[in-house]
Amino acid sequence: MTQPYFSVIMPVYNAQNHLRETVQSVLDQSCTDFEMIMIDDGSNDNSLAIMLDMANHDDRLKVISKNNQGVSKTRNMGAEIAKGAFLAFLDADDLWRSQKLAMHYALHHRNPSIDASYAQIAFVETDNIESPKTYSTVLDQPLTINEIVAENPVCTTSNLVVSRAIFLSLGGFDEAMSHAEDQELLARMVDDGHIVRGIDTYLVDYRLSPDGLSVNLPAMYDGWKTLAHQYSTSEDLKYAEAIFLRYLSRRALRSGAPSKVALQYAIKGLSSDSHAFFKDKKRGWLTLISASVGMLLPRSTRLHIFA
Prior knowledge:
Layout: E1 6-12, H1 19-27, E2 34-41, H2 47-55, E3 61-66, H3 71-81, E4 86-89, E5 95-96, H4 100-110, E6 116-125, E7 134-135, H5 145-150, E8 161-163, H6 164-169, H7 181-191, E9 196-208, H8 217-231, H9 234-255, H10 259-272, H11 274-277, H12 281-294, H13 299-306
Parallel strand pairs: 1-2, 1-4, 2-3, 6-9
Antiparallel strand pairs: 4-8, 5-9, 6-7, 6-8
Helix pairs in contact: 7-8, 8-9, 9-10, 9-12, 9-13, 10-12
């Protein structure tokens, strides 16, 4: 196989339920200039067998198995052995639209100065991917550190495409982090003078899985605080914290967390910087009202409305 343009890196841990569908979304890409490196991170379900079976039918798929070491170390391992000029990360339960790689290829081919890129994502329920609940916002200019720390428009590592040379020069993901490691990498990239730009087209489905890693809200908050204290001034920190707490409140509603959790994050965000919380008035008020109303609704109803 000649050097591919993309190396798709997918860490896998107990992902048997959606694994075939996720891998198929890569195989269905209109741009076929890729290899896919699937790394089993010590799964104890049928994930490894599924990967090996699929790899037997397509030589672009490569499978590695190792003991559990965490998602950041696993992604970094994939990047080290990758052959592509660009790395495209994908989690084992998310999905790509068929034009994902083609549109990133076109962007980087037209603009060689862009070091990393992302697209619009749809937030979908685990078993209802055809009816997105909401979409992310793509900014029309290169990302700044403040934007990355406050809201992270990239949203998920499954949305990130980055120059392999730049990724390796920066040392990859911080292996001590299991939450906010993608934001930390992006902040480090921009702080080092690299350009991250968006594609304002829906290309990624992000599953809102109630039992996923990202639903550990306290750990997400702790990881974010580590990042924010490193890259924000004291004034910027309050602003960014209000916006991130607004996000955690919405995430609590979507994941079916105890009703008081969403309201606690919303109130904390308001006390941090009310102007920042309501900078996007629609999102701010909807979050506050939803968190308040959620106290009156059973969990099943909250999941149906807010997921």
